[in-house]
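Weekly sync, protein design subgroup
Attendees: M.S., D.O., the rotation student, P.L. (late)

Item 1: inverse folding check
M.S. brought a backbone from last month's batch and wanted to see whether the design step gives back something sensible before we order anything. D.O. pointed out we never logged the input encoding, so this time it goes straight into the notes. Structure tokens as presented (166 positions):
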């Protein structure tokens, strides 16, 4: 399954649609303005909130939290002791599963893996539309909404880190 994401720097109040490879709107990323922390919702076409994404307020390093139905689903942060700045760890709430995200985050060329197995690829290479990247969910049993939320979080964290370094 391939999804197309218009590449905006996520900020407060930014809303945009994620489409499938046929051009049909599938998910809405709804940026919430006027909040103390960065907050987004991933909604379906009927406006139902599928996933809540927010920045963890009191953390030693930037951390994003993904929730579904009011409960924690995953926590995302830059991997500690990584020589590469573009390596993130996604800790699922079940405690036993970690996903690795690595690659060129700023270039929108990275992969999401579980235990060495590829789950999704994020890339601009396939597309000719400017300012758009694709999220290609490789495994049929993977949760596309979660993987899209992971991509949104990782890009947001990387861009925030880049702004903080300037």
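Designed sequence read out in the meeting:
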């Amino acid at each position: 399954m391939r999804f197309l994401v218009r590449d905006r720097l996520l900020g407060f109040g930014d809303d945009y649609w994620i489409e499938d490879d046929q051009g049909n709107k599938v998910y809405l990323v709804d940026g919430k303005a006027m909040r103390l922390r960065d907050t987004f919702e991933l909604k379906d076409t009927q406006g139902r909130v599928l996933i809540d994404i927010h920045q963890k307020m009191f953390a030693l390093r930037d951390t994003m939290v993904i929730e579904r139905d009011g409960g924690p689903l995953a926590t995302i942060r830059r991997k500690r002791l990584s020589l590469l700045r573009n390596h993130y760890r996604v800790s699922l709430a079940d405690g036993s599963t970690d996903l690795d995200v690595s690659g060129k985050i700023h270039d929108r060329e990275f992969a999401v893996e579980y235990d060495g197995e590829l789950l999704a690829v994020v890339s601009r290479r396939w597309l000719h539309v400017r300012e758009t990247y694709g999220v290609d969910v490789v495994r049929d049993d993977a949760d596309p909404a979660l993987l899209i939320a992971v991509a949104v979080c990782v890009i947001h964290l990387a861009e925030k880190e880049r702004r903080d370094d300037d």
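Discussion: The longest strand covers residues 71-78. The chain has one domain: 2-165.
Action: P.L. to compare against the previous round before Friday.
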